[in-house]
Amino acid sequence: MSTHNWRGLRRVFRIPLGWMGVKADVDAELTFHIQGRIDELMGRGLSRQDAEAETRRLFGDYARIESEVERIDRGMTRRRTIAEHAEAWLADVRYAVRTLAHQPVFAGVVVLTLTLGIGATTAIFHVVDRVVLHPLPYPEPARIVYVGWSWRGKGNYAGALSPQKFVFFHDQSHIFDGLVATRGISGTVGETSSGASARGLLVTEDFFRVLKVQPARGRAFIRDEFAPDAPSVAILGHALWTTRFGGDPNVIGREFRLDDRPYTIVGIMPESFELAEETESSGFLVPLRFTETDLADAGSNYLVIGRLRNGVTESQAKQDLALAFDHYRATFPDIVAKEGDTGPVLFTYRSLFVSGLEPVLWILLVATLFVLLLGCANVANLLLARALSRQREFAVRTALGAGRGRIVRQVVIEALLLGVVSAVIASVVSLAGVRGLVALSHGSMMRDTQLAVDQRALWFTTLIAVTASLGIGLAAALPATRIDLARSLSEGARGGSPSRRQRGLRNALVATESAIAMILLAGAGLLIASFVKLRAVDPGFVLDGIVTARIAHAPAGYDSAAAVDEFERRVLERLRATPGITSVGATSSLPLVRGLNTVMTLDGNDEAKEGGLEWRAVSPGYFQTFGIKVLRGRQITDADSRLAPPIVLVSKSFADKWWPGENPLGRRIRIGKFGSRSLGKSSGDPAREIVGVVADMKDMALEQLRPRHTVWVPQAQTTPSFLSHVSLPSFAVRATDIHAAASALRAAIQDADPRMGAPEISAMRDVASSSSSYQQRWFTLVLMSLFAAVALGLTSVGIYGVVAYSAARRVHEIGVRMALGARPANVVVLVVSQGMRPVILGLAGGLLAALALSRLLTKMLFGVSPHDPRTLAVVALVLTAVALLASYLPARRATRVDPLTALRSE
Amino acid sequence: MPPAPDLDLIRGTLDLLLLKTLSWGPMHGLAALQWIERTTNQKLQVEEGALYPALHRLEEKGWLDAEWGHTDRGRRAKFYRLTAAGRRQLTAELSRWAHYTEAVGLVIAAKGART
């Protein structure tokens, strides 16, 4: 082949001039020039020597010219190569669009499957990203820490501090740019009778420095406003400002009535401001001023947030806090417990607020990835079947000189195209999905401002879609392009029959799908079993037939115990007289609602003390109403008044700890006193005689494992030292008709004091099912079941597809068998058993994987072992049944084939 | 070799000369050079160092097509051919050149500047 022709061929086949070719090319061209010049000069009579010298002179610096020309040519070659590739890809994309447009059903099914997988994965990722990975809406969130207290001896901790501790560490630690104590409050905005309830936050001075947020209008609080006698000021949240004040910028400087007390509005927070831990909108901010009573209260009831100084590492922070704690221990030796009190600890937002949800979300993300994988397997299967039916086309193209690479590229481009379309739809759909998730979690999971799609979610979707498409394309293209040319071309229109390798690949797909479905179904099954168990838990008190009322805030005038007592007496009296109500009681905090905790010391023995006790003040009738069993001694009666000797009932676990095997009745404890130091106001709580032992119960949460030590005091005997926390009591009634009881409760409260805002009335059963852990279970359960159902569907479609495909391929063989006398049943058994083989294999593998993986679920399980044989057996049975059905349907169809037709089809 | 007039060719002019030369038909580099020299009676000497970079740049711009072929004497040489785009470029350059020389001519022919 002459050079000229070679060059021409290279152009025809778009073979780029290689880089090595460039050098030879330029060299040859310049050599030709120089040779020509020498010849020309010699032709004019110069000697060879002179001619060469003259040529060199004329030509100049050969090396420089050569390198410059080479540089130009390389650039040119590169650009042409890129352009040619782009052109080829574009042609392939156009071809793919045309092909898919002609097969709308195929394309639709694929896009639907992928959209489901990508959409679900994206939605869950969005939630994981916002809730777990980037939860805080403040600048430099990594430096924000929460300060709590731990008692290693007791194995527990509080994610909050008492005022006294907060003040001490605020002044003594050097690692914070600011340390703020906060406490949520709720109150009535406007006139008490007509006002609306709003939630707000008490904050100390460093609040704005710690969160690095500033009011959008007006100003932040100034130092003087935290002085005890300073005039009352407030900053409005954006939501309250727009709903209550119509977004009027002139409200700054105006008065704002909160619980009948006037506050001057000094600022308005920006719309983006929401306290991360307050899922309800933060309505307003009010300066937090600690009173003497507050400072004497040992309960860890204030959320403390700090911003670490720049450059402070975690270990430095711990060191500094340890030093401050040593100082604290030296200053207040009687407050710190002798053993086990390990002092302040730092929490991240994640460890404090997300820890419960985090494993759930990761599990769900893995589950969606599994669903996506299943979808990919099905799509790969479809594409593979399609690629195989196009094998003749591929064979022709290969014979015409298209490399295997080009055909693979064609299939991969098709997959990418489908993936991109699915990803675009999925991005839109996942938005609705995220909203659905938030609704499903009753808004407890994310704030509205976290709903918007951001760059991270988009990147994630892109990554997922591209990875999935590439995987699908390669999985379909590589086996399909392993072409035996001669065979494919000679086999006629039927196309190549599947090789052993291709069958192996399809079986592997089915096995993988079955395994994944097994894992997801096992997970969902275990969650369902747990949920059933949880529903059946006996918490130790009655849930059904009980209606409760909580009053979020008291109008002015309820500062004294007498006023509260009077209000309560009137409500209870009225309810007792209501027909249909069998029992009624009042309490400081209802079961399953976060209560207050306190400390105690045995009377006369300062060494015998305990912190972290649950404290409940209850009225006579409370135990009957909730069906709470008093195991020993007596209940609280009307005789236990303020004037009567102070008494207390204790929980069984508490009694067992201090007086194991002895009778606790008649013993005396001092509540609110810790060792020699009284934490109450003035002299603290009097010594109380134990008059009864109450059965332990699950009143913190239904899945509570260990009972909390609890003390019960008569409401009439609560001392003023506790009043700073005892707002108005909650009420509970037991009735046959809970709807009537609910109205009676509301009426009784309104009648007792018409200024009282609307109480929060709920059936106890609803309180139980609205707890965050219960909600989380429900949420996980619903999603896992949904994903498992989708997985089951995808898997059965996958099995059906593979069996149907192989049956169709064997029409001829089946025809022969039936012509030779095989009965339909024999054929069905043959086809089904072949189809089931990879399913059984996958189920076995999936079972093993489920056994290994279900341990991750342990936290979400209740009363069910992660290896619960019953659940796993049921799941395996369900899957087998579905798989049998999925392979029976195509098998039966195969037997309907008329043997003659089958034979003729050859 | 007769002494060549010392005429410096600016690059734009060289491009124009090459495009025009190749408009007569495909030529290899040396032939184009010799054609220019012959046509100008050796008055215009193209710097050989600039010739090949210029040719390759014109090829890169798509105004020339390069192809290996054989000379009359049967030797391998790289031939350059004007493309359609090259022909359009030539027309544009020619009219620009005409404007330029006309303007320069006007200045040169002026009868002294008025003060």
Write a concise keyword list for the protein shown above.
heterodimer, A: 906 residues, alpha+beta, 4 domains, six-stranded mixed β-barrel, globular, disordered N terminus, B: 115 residues, Arc Repressor Mutant, subunit A, three-stranded antiparallel sheet
Structural commentary:
- The complex is a heterodimer of chains A (906) and B (115).
- The longest helix of chain A has 40 residues, at 62-101.
- Chain A has four domains: 3-91, no CATH class; 141-354, no CATH class; 357-535 and 773-904, no CATH class; 554-756, no CATH class.
- In chain A, strand 1 (144-151) and strand 2 form a beta hairpin.
- Chain A is globular, with a radius of gyration of 39 Å.
- In chain A, the strands form four sheets. In chain A, strands 1, 2, 3, 4, 5, 6, 7, 8, 9, 10 and 11 form an eleven-stranded mixed sheet that branches. A six-stranded mixed beta barrel of chain A has the order 14-15-22-17-21-18.
- Helices cover 53% and strands 15% of the residues of chain A.
- Chain A is an alpha+beta fold and 906 residues long.
- Chain B has one domain: Winged helix-like DNA-binding domain superfamily/Winged helix DNA-binding domain (Arc Repressor Mutant, subunit A, Orthogonal Bundle).
- In chain B, 28% of the residues are buried.
- With 115 residues, chain B is α+β, with helices and mostly antiparallel strands.
- In chain B, a hairpin with a 5-residue loop joins strand 2 and strand 3 (76-82).
- In chain B, strands 1-3-2 form a three-stranded antiparallel sheet.
- Chain B is globular and about 60 Å long.
- Classes of the chains: A alpha+beta (906), B alpha+beta (115).
- Chain A binds chain B through residues 3-4, 7, 25-26, 28-30, 32-33, 35-37, 40-41, 54, 58-61, 64-65, 68-69, 72-73, 75-76, and chain B through 1, 28-30, 34, 47-49, 52-53, 56-57, 59-60, 67-70, 75-78.
SS element count, helices of chain A: 28
Overall, the morphology of chain A is globular
Strand fraction band of chain A? 15-25%
Q: Tell me, rounded to a whole number, the average pLDDT of chain B.
A: 83
Look at the helices and sheets of chain A and give the structural class: alpha+beta
What's the β-strand tally of chain B?
A: 3
Largest interface: A-B, 28 and 22 residues
CATH class of chain B: Mainly Alpha
Supply the number of helical segments of chain B.
4
Return the domain count of chain B.
1
Q: What is the overall pLDDT average of chain A?
A: 82
Segments of chain B where pLDDT lies below 50 for 5+ residues?
A: 1-7
Number of strands of chain A: 24
